[in-house]
Amino acid sequence: MAVEIKSKRDIEKMRATCRLAASVLEYIEPFVVPGVTTEELNRLCHEYIVKAGAYPSPLDYHGFPKSICTSVNEVICHGIPEERVLNEGDIINLDITTTLDGFFGDCSDMFTVGEISDEAKTLIDVTRRSLWLGIAEVGPGKRIGDIGAAIYDYAGRKLGYGVVEAFCGHGIGRQFHTAPQVSHRAKRGTGLRMKPGMTFTIEPMINVGTHECDILDDGWTAITRDGKLSAQAEHTILVTDHGYDVLTTRKGGYTPG
Ligand code: MF3
Ligand code: CO
Ligand code: CO
């Protein structure tokens, strides 16, 4: 499948939808406290996105019932907001996708509920670092497999974490999920060559234990097979003439260095 090259106008629209998606994470952070339900976080994000003149892309996407994904502790991704209360020590991924003026922007990050364990802190740090190691591989003429190679070499080979293979990053633009597929475990020097104007996500899911997952009976929630913690971080990236632009950065968000 051909990978779309965005025009200047398309890129401006990508910037706007991605800026909005990132701003939702900025907005919601102070609400992630002990006692809040994931449904309440869903409601707040939904209101914010609709007020901004956009649509919360997950809602009704292949039947997904809510406006954001809330993945707590052993949940890898696609957790469904519910009347579950967050407790001190929980870690949660909030995954926000917006549709604005016909274009999708997609990002997620980890949030902590009160004081968390050292194991959880390290996992979150490794996950964010691995995302940025993948991002550093983006540039015109480079191969898409180098992204997953960098992520796996660090989190998997070097540190022994489980790098989830069942879910990938994806091309994004006028569609939520399109070509190319961006694996988080790949071989260096393989895959498509990146070109300026391509936009895709990188969104590694990193597990303390096994990389294997199971899907709950709700058809969505992916959990670790061993019940150990999982973390994820996601950005939407634009390939530029000389390298990359991370379209979903936000104030207070993680950057390496
Ligand atoms: N935002 C997720 C991603 O990063 C996809 C969520 S699809 C949903 O690709 F239906 F679960 F919302
Ligand atoms: Co995504
Ligand atoms: Co996402």
Task: Briefly say what this structure is.
By secondary structure, this protein is an alpha+beta fold. It has four helices and 15 strands.
Kindly provide the radius of gyration, computed on alpha-carbon positions and rounded to a whole number of angstroms.
17 Å
Order of helices and strands: HHEEEEEHHEEEEEEEEEE
Gross morphology: globular
Number of domains: 1
CATH class: Alpha Beta
Question: What can you see in these coordinates?
Answer:
It is built from four helices and 15 strands. The chain is of the alpha+beta class. The strands form five sheets. Strands 1, 2, 4 and 5 form a four-stranded antiparallel β-sheet that branches. It starts with 7 loop residues before the first helix and ends in an 11-residue tail after the last strand. The relative contact order is 0.19. One cobalt (II) ion is lined by residues 106, 170, 201, 203, 234.
Topology:
Elements: H1 8-28, H2 38-51, E1 55-56, E2 69-72, E3 75-77, E4 91-100, E5 103-112, H3 118-135, H4 145-158, E6 162-163, E7 169-171, E8 178-182, E9 199-202, E10 205-207, E11 213-215, E12 222-224, E13 230-232, E14 235-239, E15 244-246
Antiparallel strand pairs: 1-4, 2-4, 3-12, 4-5, 6-10, 7-8, 9-14, 10-13, 11-12, 14-15
Helix pairs in contact: 1-2, 3-4
